[in-house]
Here is the input.
Amino acid sequence: MLRYSALLKDTKPYLTLQSDLAVGKLNHCYMIMGEDELAVDGLIDLSCEAILCKERGCGKCVVCQKIEDKNHEDIFEPKNLKADGIREFVEKVYVKSVGDIKIMIIRALDKVDPKVQNFLLKSLEEPIDGVVFLLGVIRQSAVLDTIKSRSKKLTLAPFTKKQLTDFFDDNYIGKPKSLVEEAVDCCLGSLARCESLLGDEEYFGDMSEVIFILKELTSTKVNLKMQKRLDLKDGKLARYLDIMQLICGVLLKRKSGVFVEGFERVNVLLDCFNIATLVNFNELIIEAKQKIESYCKDENILDNLFIKMMEVKYLCR
Ligand SMILES: [Zn+2]
Here is the structure.
């Protein structure tokens, strides 16, 4: 049985596919779209089970087992996402299948160069009987409109806190309950983020530090002592910046009236910054991340970021 299958089977993409199967109207191409890569990936496997298993995805039979072991003879994936990989993949459309249906999978179509995405067009324009494409998409903007328009689009919404809480109540994963609760609270409905939070027990301590420091940015006088609280060893700067960006993103949504479930811990900062300040903070954090890639010294990047943040806070007051 696939991990998270109970959760994934309760999503709109999966239920839509099941109802297409029930009325015998399987589309020739499904595009599963969502920001949660782990969920999109799992949904692709579950969709294969639904299509190929006699019981529409029991998770136990030989067919389902082969799918989960990634060695089903009628499922094809490109060996890489470059031109040669996709070209070879498209040729497999014409190989005769063992059973009645052949499934062609690209798990991250948005990572394929748009020029190379074009190779798929012909197979999508002239569907072949018994061939179904399953395309996973994280960033919709990176996919050609011509491909989108030829696919049945299945959009995955973030999971609710209740769905995740219920799932982890029913499925013990060997992690302390308090950690599971924190991860569920801060994952914004994404399984991918939830999983990485569960595997990283220091994350929440680091997040508390970042919240504390942002809170202290209240005065306009440069208080660089604060940032010395952050321990910059082992490339931790990138992680602090990620956390900061996440926090600013949540605050910005809340201040703009967009509902965000969970993440109550950042509310201590709600009155500290206005919308203009948060928008600018986001830009500054992106800039700082780019500086890491160009090998600037971590201490200097952080000094610079804090000085600019305080400037912005003053200017946008
Ligand atoms: Zn089965």
